[in-house]
Amino acid sequence: VVAGFTAVTAVLQPPGGAWSPALRIRHRSIVSTSFNVMFEALVPLIVFAWLGDARSTLVVSSAGVAVYVGWIVAVRLRQFIRTGAIHTRSGRVLLLIAGAAFVLFAANVLLGSVALFALALCVQLAVAVVSFYTLVATALG
């Protein structure tokens, strides 16, 4: 559903008529983050079918997702630095949110909590939400 909102932002025009590279990264992050969260939410189901133990499932799932999210955050950080998005308040907020999701997944390797895994997914999804609102606010001036 969140990825569908990208269609809304695709038809908006920012002042000046062209999206900056920093805003194009935010546009892509709406879709990529939405799909990432959807697939990450399915990881524990697959791992549980493999392991058959709830706590081990959450530990293994959290470890795998933490590695993946850490890699994505590193890639986005390089993109934000290259495009100058790191110098905007919303860019820094996005990286902070993504980093918080990584920390929550990593912490859940120790705790093995369903609630913490779900919280980490919600925090990660906030990246798409902030990106969406940033694009709409920029286009509407």
Mean pLDDT: 89
Percent of residues in β-strands: under 5%
Radius of gyration: 16 Å
Unreliable sequence segments: none
Oligomer: single chain
Query: Main sheet?
Result: none
List keywords for this structure.
84% helix; elongated; mainly alpha; 141 residues; 0% strand; single chain
Notes on the protein architecture:
- By secondary structure, the protein is mainly α.
- 84% of the residues lie in helices and 0% in strands.
- α1 runs antiparallel to α2 (21-51) and α3 runs antiparallel to α4 (89-111).
- The longest helix is centred in the first third of the chain and has 31 residues, at 21-51.
- The relative contact order is 0.19.
Short characterization:
The protein has helices at residues 5-11, 21-51, 54-83, 89-111, 114-140. With 141 residues, the chain is mainly alpha-helical.
List the helices and strands and how they pair.
Elements: H1 5-11, H2 21-51, H3 54-83, H4 89-111, H5 114-140
Helix pairs in contact: 1-2, 2-3, 2-5, 3-4, 4-5
